[in-house]
Design brief:
Blueprint: H1 3-15, H2 19-35, H3 39-66, H4 87-93, H5 97-100, E1 104-108, H6 115-128, E2 133-137, H7 138-150, H8 154-162, E3 166-172, H9 179-192, E4 197-202, H10 209-213, H11 216-228, E5 230-234, H12 240-247, H13 254-257
Parallel strand pairs: 1-4, 1-5, 2-3, 3-4
Helix pairs in contact: 1-2, 2-3, 3-6, 7-8, 7-9, 9-11
């Protein structure tokens, strides 16, 4: 291949936005000439790299748009430290069928047991599978809805939170929600009901949700919609954040404190 022809091909690849092929072209041409690679195999390899590169770029972009507080995977989750969790059940959720079916996942447990890690890890799986995902903590979500209501933009904001196929709401229950905020939260849950999937984390049992929302009727209505098509994972264990301090002898093991 002449240098003029190579330059022309590279210009066309840029025009078509086939950037990975453009990067790999010269080295692949050299490999093909040395290895007597067929035209079909040569083209197949180049296109495979281009598709992989675009997929990686899309996943990276969707991950950024999801607004995760950090990136953690199921592979990095220490299931041995939390034996109350059924790993097989979590892996089934990682297949993302619950998202396709518009179902919900509720992760319950005390602080530090890995609820947010699991929520983010499942969110990463969703992004990888091509589902639009958004992560938010409960209080910023309610504050956003309340602000939009005051500015007469509530419909616009509700639409924003209804667009993702998966909405992750973290830390329900750490701070009580006022009555007005509870009503707005109910509107969001009601609009997503059977249309979009939720992952919810909470440190409070369902029987305590009336305290979170300050109204038994609203709490019941919210739970009715969240739990109708759902999987609940109860995590009973010690805090990951305290694990290293216990190892270092800075804290006494919770098991010893209970004896």
């Amino acid at each position: 291949m002449s240098s003029t022809q190579l330059v022309r091909i590279q210009e066309r690849l840029k025009h078509l936005k086939l950037y990975r092929i453009n990067e790999q072209l010269e080295s692949r041409l050299e490999e093909a000439s040395r290895g007597n690679v067929s035209y079909g195999d040569f083209l197949d390899q180049l296109l495979d790299e281009e598709v992989s590169a675009k997929k990686e770029k899309n996943i990276s972009m969707r991950t950024s748009m999801a607004r995760f507080p950090f990136v953690k995977t199921l592979e990095s989750f220490d299931f041995a430290f939390q034996p109350s969790i059924d790993k097989k059940r979590i892996n089934e959720l990682a297949a993302c069928r619950f998202i396709a079916n518009g179902e919900n996942v509720i992760l319950l447990g005390p602080p530090g047991v890995g609820k947010t890690h699991l929520a983010v890890a499942l969110g990463i799986k969703a992004v990888t599978e091509g589902y639009r995902t958004h992560f938010t903590q409960a209080m910023p979500l309610v504050a956003s809805l309340t602000k939009a209501y005051a500015e007469n933009r509530i419909e616009e904001r509700l639409k924003f939170y209804c667009q993702p196929k998966l909405l992750i709401i973290d830390e329900i229950g750490y701070i009580p929600i006022d009555r007005h905020g509870a009503h707005l939260f109910f509107q969001l849950i009601s609009r997503r009901y059977e249309r979009g999937a939720l992952i919810v984390t909470s440190n409070r049992s369902f029987g305590q949700w009336n305290e979170i929302f300050g109204d038994t009727v609203i709490a019941t209505a919210i739970l009715d919609r969240i739990l109708h098509h759902s999987t609940t994972v109860n995590i009973k264990g010690n805090s990951y954040r305290l694990k290293e301090k216990v190892k270092a002898g800075l804290l006494q093991s919770p098991e010893l404190e209970q004896t």
